[in-house]
Amino acid sequence: MELAFRTDRGQVRTQNEDAVLILGDAFSGIALVADGMGGHAAGEVASQIVIEEFRRAFPSLPSTPVDIEQWFRHHIHLANEQVLQFAKQSNLVMMGTTVAAVCWNGETVVIVHIGDSRVYALQANELRRLTEDHSYVNVLKQLGELTEEEMRVHPKRNVITRAIGSSEQVEPDVQVLADPEFDVILICTDGLTTHLTDGAIQHVLQQAVSADQKADQLIAEANQLGGSDNITVALVQFTDRKRG
Amino acid sequence: MRSGERINDRYRIEQQIGSGGMANVYRAHDEILNRTVAIKVLRSEFSHNEQFIRRFEREAHAATSLNHPNIVAIYDVGDEDDLYYIVMEHVDGVTLKQYLQEEYISVDEALRIMGQICDAIDHAHANRIIHRDIKPQNMMIDQHGNVKVTDFGIAVAMSNATLTHTMSVLGSVHYFSPEQARGKFADEKSDIYSLGAVLYELLTGRVPFIGETPVAVALQHLQDDPIRPMDLNPNIPQALENCVMQALSKSPGARHASVAAFKKDCMTALSRERANEPRRLSANQDEFDQTLVMAPVVPEEKQDVPVTPPPVTPPKEQEPEEVPVKKKKRKWWIWILLIVLLIGGSIAAYVVADEMSRSVVPDVVGMSIGDATTELEASGFVVEVTERASDDIAEGEVISQNPQEGRKPKRGTTVTIVVSAGKETVEMPNVEGLSQTAAERMLKDLAFSDLEITTEASETVNSGDVISQSVDPGEEVVPSEVTVTLVVSTGSNKVELSNLAGYTFDEASIYAEQNKLKIVKRDEFSTSVPKGQIIRQLPTAGTAVDPGTELTVIVSEGVEPTDISIEREVTVEVEQPDKDKKPKTVEVVIRTVDARGEIEVLRDQITETTTYSYTLVIAPDEVGTATIEVDGEIVRTDSVTYAQAEEAQ
Fold it and tell me: What DSSP string describes B169-236?
């Protein structure tokens, strides 16, 4: 297994409010990205709080699928409390962060997300988007009011409907998969998907190169197309997967 | 910003008068022109986004060109040390939103206000400025009842430039147009839609769409028809409802051609000529009632009627009665019939038959549902009842009716009556486990105004969180009529015991006193803990205990003293006789009284001086004594104290 991650400020922003974490090995691990929001320092703090929460929590990663799900929800809840607390103490409005995370333990893969950071998987050369953005434009898209292309240029594409730090109760979407036989998992912030279509992402992930090279290429392409936001990717590449 | 602070050495801040997600508004004094102004200051979180700042300034500058009695004038746009601000005319008054919450507005008053708003927007459009965020919160009503519209174009700066994520800034979804919901660029027609939404609220007291989240409201703008204003306020004439509904058309093309056209449509709605105007067909309905497609019905006298989609009749229950269009149609039919009937020769019969098949709708507003139903049915109508919550009208009483009294539809027509379901109830939410602030916020949002807080210690609920609520979750209640008592945890009363090991008993006593515990001392020897210090405690450290609990501390007495054995010697002298004489024999007895009790340790007969040794075992704080008897007479006692024995060791 190969792990790789990159986080990049992009071409427009003066700060990087994204954060990323990869821990573990072929047997068990976690890969997580967070896209902070709230302007001026608040976003950076929010995304870091989530990263630190899971860095601390990782050694206690349980083994059964049910327990992993519980563990995820619990630590998301704790991170949410810390962000709310910090925002309150510092008198910040609209401080928050997205999170998209993948955790694997044995053959179990658990996917969690809040907001519009995404998880993709490449399987048999097909790219699948495993998460549904919690965003205003995605709600409209799901109801057939917007196309994928309209979604990408909508002026309110930045409005997300769920975030860590948005309220006392924040529910992540959790998916528990048993031995899904993914070849590559990509976790990314919208700095990537604002510029790269799913087709472009698939093209990069399909190549027979190392996870590091893929990560570099994704960041480079997003920057070439404008790099309007911070760009963060985390890649998990199952190199030793035997396909039947 | 604090009061007294100065911006650009010119504007002295007096007081904060408003705040929004992106900016705060202050009342300030312009010291150069000696006048009161309002200053909108961008929140510092956003003052680092250059793209955002550029738009903020550009849009604000554009708005400075507007000069109209119904538009809040912009005097100055500037920045100073990362502080971006707009200096505006200060309007001494309240926002239209606040005004609506406090005042009852008649239809006439609504139209007067709307007329001024239309003038403002029309002026802006003439200057090619689209407002894009028309809402009652952006309108001020001054002391004289004049309306002034503010925040022209700012919405663009607020939305487009903030590519950074946000959770709450979807904008004013209650008034925005379907095309804005879709992310299309807003134009004059979008402003007309928003004007329609504001007029809707002025007339009915509520926004066209109510939803739990901004996204839900946005979706309704895209997909749903609002409740007919006349169903909410029977005082609204049909012509005015038509005007509102046309402005609220989903398709921009179906709306009025201009703000001026919209204004004219509103302002003439109460005129006598339009008193019998039929319900205008909404362009929105084509999507919903394809099956009902019938012959096109186009009122020729209206020039600004939707034409794009194939016009259809409205759903049955909304079918207007006695519409002029239909009259025409009917007249046309009558002519055919006439010809037919002329042949048959009984015109009068038909007319009478038609007249007899009609009936006058009685006024049932204010009646009980039973009376209203009886009355309507007696007139030959079918009654359909819709319930609606109302704070003013008693439960079971008719709020409004459709068709209205005096109309003459055919017998058998359905008359819809809106009946009060009593005060609006809400389902009591479950706030247990929430923090007090979150619970209060949630309840206040649901209009529970009478909240009482009591506190209680709790072992299971964190301090500051709600332990219980006086109204059970799920119960249907009228928020304004119940007192909700929340029991909030003050946290655990229990004391988590500190580790007292190493403390002296006196220190532990102070600790116990402070924590309202009873302290009990027990002594114990210890080889490891110095004398006087606490060895351990019961209950152990970390245990949470109630006040008054007995706390036993075991205090070291130091190393446990043990019996000491000590070897002693005594020499019994025997006089040596002359050589020839027989030696003298003496009997020696040694007894000891010590920790072992009384023991005769030795009995001997000797003829010469002999030294004996014996052992004394001395218990702590005791004395060991040996007596030495020679021939039955005590010749010596040997007493050793414990201290002496220790020393000798």
Answer: -S--TTT--HHHHTTPPP-HHHHHHHHHHHHHHHHHSS-S---SSHHHHHHHHHH-PPPPHHHH-TTS
Q: What is the pLDDT of residue B46?
A: 67
B262 in Cβ contact with B243 (< 8 Å): yes
Question: Do A89 and A40 contact (CB within 8 A), yes or no?
Answer: no
Give me the catalytic one of B119, B133, B151, B465.
B133
Q: What is the DSSP string of A117-136?
A: -EEEEEETTEEEE-----BH
Classify residue A181 by burial, with Cβ atoms within 10 Å: 0-12, 13-18, 19+: middle
Query: CB under 8 Å to B280, separation ≥6 — which residues?
Result: B242, B245, B246, B299, B302, B305
pLDDT, position B307? 36
Chain B touched by A22 (CB under 8 Å): no
Taking an 8 Å cut-off on Cβ atoms, the answer to whether A146 and B182 are in contact is yes
Interchain pair A228, B163: CB under 8 A: yes
- Average pLDDT over chain A reads 90
Chain B residue with minimal CA distance to A34? B165
3-state secondary structure (DSSP) of residue B408: coil
Q: Do B45 and A163 touch (CB under 8 A)?
A: no
Which tokens go with A164?
A: 């860590």
Residues, chain B, total? 649
Question: Helix or strand or coil: residue A28?
Answer: strand
Beta strands in B579-620 (DSSP E): 586-594, 597-606, 610-618
Question: Which among B165, B467, B23 has a CA at the least distance from the CA of A165?
Answer: B165
Say whether B164 and A39 touch across the interface (CB within 8 A). yes
Per the DSSP assignment, residues forming a β-bridge with A20 are A33
Q: Which long-range contacts (CB under 8 A, 24 or more apart) does B9-15 make?
A: B11/B37, B11/B39, B11/B87, B13/B39
Closest partner residue to B170 among A92, A146, A159, by Cβ?
A159
d(CA B379, CA B375): 6
How do beta strands A231-237 and A2-8 pair? antiparallel
> Phi/psi zone of residue B573: left (φ > 0), alpha (ψ -120 to 50 degrees), beta?
beta
Number of A–B residue contacts, CB under 8 Å: 97
Tell me how close the Cα of A125 comes to any Cα of chain B, in angstroms.
32
Indicate the residue of A17, A40, A139 with minimum beta-carbon distance to B44. A40
Give chain B positions within 8 Å (CB) of A96. Answer: 165, 167
- What pLDDT, on the 0 to 100 scale, is given for residue B478? 86
Q: What angle do CA B5, B11, B13 make, to 5 degrees?
A: 40
Which residues are B604's β-sheet partners?
A: B588
Chunk chain B into consecutive blocks of 10 residues (it has 649) and report each block's average pLDDT, rounded to whole numbers: 84 85 84 91 73 71 84 87 87 89 84 96 90 90 91 61 52 85 86 96 91 84 90 89 95 93 94 86 45 34 38 37 39 51 44 60 87 86 81 84 76 81 82 83 82 85 86 86 89 83 89 88 86 88 85 88 86 79 84 88 88 89 89 88 84
> What integer pLDDT is reported at residue A94 of this predicted model?
75
Nearest by CB to A229, which of B47, B163, B438? B163
Handedness of CA B249, B250, B256, B258 (dihedral sign): positive
Ramachandran class of B151: left when φ > 0, alpha when ψ lies in -120 to 50, beta otherwise: left
A10 touches chain B (CB under 8 A): no
- Say yes or no to pLDDT of A65 above 80: yes
A229/B164 touch (CB, cutoff 8 Å), yes or no: yes
A139–B45 C-beta distance less than 8 A? no
Contact (CB<8Å) A39/B219: no
Question: Is B392 noted as a catalytic residue in this protein?
Answer: no
Chain B residue nearest residue A117, CA to CA: B165
Is residue A136 less than 8 Å (CB to CB) from chain B? yes
| Matching residue, tokens 């007081």 | B15
B284 Cα to chain A: minimum distance (Å): 16
Asked if A160 and B166 come within 8 Å (Cβ–Cβ), the reply is yes
